[in-house]
Inverse folding.
């Protein structure tokens, strides 16, 4: 009974600490979705492929979207002719390298600031490396699902003005949301990607309405995942004997593998995953906590269905394998040489 | 997700159950946070520094819920048709996510969180506290008067300079809850506190051994006490350790904020 009470208290503690960050993340991503003209981004892409990858990784700092929001954005980037390096860099880094996630991680781990900074550092290193590997393939079409690659323009060199930059739309960060204004005119999702509409014609009230819709939708989906994640964290604390968790969590290799598996399964949103990791902080090695924080936002179960809307399954397997290996190596180095 | 203005006027009057449930769910969650804040149970869950964030979340939830209701009201009055959203490629079925959020919100309105107790302290490894805390306590001031030190201050001081004899006969006055340690003699127990840096998830226990004078009844586990006495050195678990000797116990009510920070 005491155990149950502790578990439930822990569960609510995680929820109450995480909900503000979830809401802030949702608020920001919805604001940007509708009020920011991000089209200019594509005109600023550097020529150098490393810089393009790095820029992709850092765009998240301007546009805080968590991992559910960033896949549709990466898809639109690719469709608009952005270089593969930029899109992959964005895909992998944006959920972690952004102010809200940084703040949440700081609050959870202010006792161990190295975790906060290494989380950002490792994420950028992995994102840029993987982006560079993928950018060897200059034409990104073979990586993508057939129905998308058919819609793709020919590859654009970085720095060149991308096609479609004349659009006055704010659809780049729109989390897969599409608007049909006139009744009866239904536009399919992928057709909408290459279709234009004037965002300026949308009234403020309409924008606010759409923003509210998007926020409620994201709160519902991410909130439910947060509840499941918090329940798992609480259950592990309460049910699994301390000795078992400790023996798993103290090994430099087993702890990393365990936390990476957990990251993959739990699929908790990146704005709040720091609190989840925190509940394991006293029992797991710092490297394994980092592995959770770096790997989780890049790769998890709920991402797969979203990623499959963009990439061919073989691309996703390569992507996952590369990210997993790099995360493992970097965090193992931290476990072995960090202290 | 596809959002489109509802194109079929004839069907637009269908009662928008999902929007209603959304509004209910958001307002219930605002109510849960309000309840935790008003009852002070919030401090059992998170560090007081972050209470402001919870109030902010409360306001956002309230705004979203009321916004949703307002949309409903306007569409019900037959104004501009409300854009209707459909999930594109939802992560989980909408019914599942909504019912999960609603159910946990209702539970949160009923359930009262309990502060962690000695069993949790033991589970989280209070045995290795003396001089071995996981992290540095945030609030540490070298108080010149030993009687002003809290349990956290003592544990930190011991961490810096662990020799038990250095503290002999220093006066001690601390408050905490009782943890009965397995394998310890009957006249010895641990007076303990949980330290919070963020939320209950990272609460870790710290404690000081207490050595009762002969003939004193051992206190009940988890009862809250003020312990006064003088530091002395005892042998516990085969190690020389500092303990509060000739201890006098005063029962106190459980504090509103039972954790140390």
């Amino acid at each position: 009974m005491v155990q149950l009470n502790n578990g439930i208290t822990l569960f609510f503690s995680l929820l109450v600490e995480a909900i503000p960050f979830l809401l802030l993340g949702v608020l920001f991503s919805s604001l940007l979705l509708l009020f920011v003209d991000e089209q200019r981004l594509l005109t600023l892409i550097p020529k150098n492929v490393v810089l393009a990858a790095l820029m992709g990784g850092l765009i998240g700092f301007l546009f805080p979207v968590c991992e559910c929001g960033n896949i549709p954005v990466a898809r639109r980037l690719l469709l608009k002719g952005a270089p593969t390096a930029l899109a992959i860099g964005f895909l992998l880094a944006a959920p972690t390298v952004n102010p809200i996630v940084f703040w949440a991680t700081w609050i959870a781990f202010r006792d161990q600031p190295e975790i906060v900074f290494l989380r950002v550092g490792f994420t950028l290193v992995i994102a840029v490396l993987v982006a560079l590997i993928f950018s060897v393939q200059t034409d990104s079409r073979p990586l993508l699902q057939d129905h998308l690659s058919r819609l793709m323009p020919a590859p654009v060199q970085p720095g060149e003005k991308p096609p479609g930059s004349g659009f006055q739309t704010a659809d780049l960060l729109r989390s897969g949301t599409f608007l049909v204004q006139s009744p009866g005119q239904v536009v399919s999702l992928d057709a909408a990607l290459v279709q234009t509409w004037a965002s300026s014609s949308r009234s403020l009230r309409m924008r606010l309405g759409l923003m509210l819709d998007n926020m409620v939708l994201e709160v519902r989906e991410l909130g439910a995942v947060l509840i499941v994640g918090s329940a798992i964290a609480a259950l592990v604390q309460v049910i699994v004997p301390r000795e078992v968790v400790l023996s798993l969590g103290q090994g430099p290799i087993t702890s990393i593998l365990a936390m990476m598996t957990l990251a993959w399964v739990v699929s908790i949103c990146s704005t709040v995953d720091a609190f989840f990791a925190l509940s394991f902080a006293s029992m797991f090695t710092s490297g394994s906590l980092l592995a959770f924080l770096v790997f989780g936002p890049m790769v998890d179960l709920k991402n797969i269905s979203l990623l499959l809307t963009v990439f061919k399954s073989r691309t996703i397997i390569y992507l996952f394998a590369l990210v997993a290996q790099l995360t493992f190596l970097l965090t193992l180095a931290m476990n072995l040489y960090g202290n | 997700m596809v959002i489109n203005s509802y194109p079929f006027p004839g069907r637009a009057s269908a009662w928008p159950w999902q929007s209603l449930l959304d509004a209910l769910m958001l307002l219930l969650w605002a109510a849960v946070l309000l309840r935790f804040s008003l009852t002070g149970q919030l401090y059992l869950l998170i560090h007081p520094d972050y209470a402001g964030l919870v109030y902010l979340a409360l306001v956002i939830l309230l705004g979203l819920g009321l916004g949703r209701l307002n949309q409903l009201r306007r569409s019900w009055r037959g104004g501009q048709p409300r854009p209707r959203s459909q999930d594109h490629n939802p992560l989980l079925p909408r019914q599942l996510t909504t019912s999960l959020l609603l159910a946990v919100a209702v539970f949160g309105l009923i359930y009262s969180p309990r502060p962690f107790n000695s069993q949790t302290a033991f589970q989280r490894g209070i045995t290795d506290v003396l001089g071995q805390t996981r992290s540095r306590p945030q609030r540490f001031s070298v108080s010149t008067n030993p009687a002003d030190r809290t349990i956290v201050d003592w544990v930190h001081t011991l961490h810096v300079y662990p020799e038990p004899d250095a503290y002999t006969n220093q006066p001690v006055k601390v408050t905490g809850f009782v943890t009965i340690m397995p394998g310890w003699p009957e006249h010895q127990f641990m007076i303990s506190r949980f330290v919070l840096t963020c939320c209950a998830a990272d609460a870790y226990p710290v404690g000081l051994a207490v050595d009762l004078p002969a003939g004193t009844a051992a206190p009940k586990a988890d009862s809250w006490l003020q312990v006064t006495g003088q530091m002395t050195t005892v042998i516990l678990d085969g190690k020389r350790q500092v303990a509060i000797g000739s201890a006098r116990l005063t029962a106190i009510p459980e504090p509103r904020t039972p954790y140390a920070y």
